[in-house]
Amino acid sequence: MKNLVLGIDIGGTNTVYGLVDVIGELYYEHSIKTKYFETMSDLIQSIKNDPEILNQYQHLIGIGIGAPNGNHFTGTIEHAPNLPWHDTIHLQAITESVFNLPCKITNDANAAALGEMLFGNAQDLKDFVTITLGTGLGSGVIVHGELVYGHDGFAGEYGHIRVVADGRICGCGRKGCLETYVSATGVTRSIKELSSPNQSTSALVQLSNPNSKDVFDYADKGDPFAIEIVDYTAKMLGNALADFTCFSSPKAFVLFGGVANAGKDFQTKVKQQMEQNMLTIFKDKVEIRISSLQDKNAAVLGAAAMIFHTKKSV
Question: Which run of H or of E encompasses 76?
Answer without folding.
Answer: strand 76-77
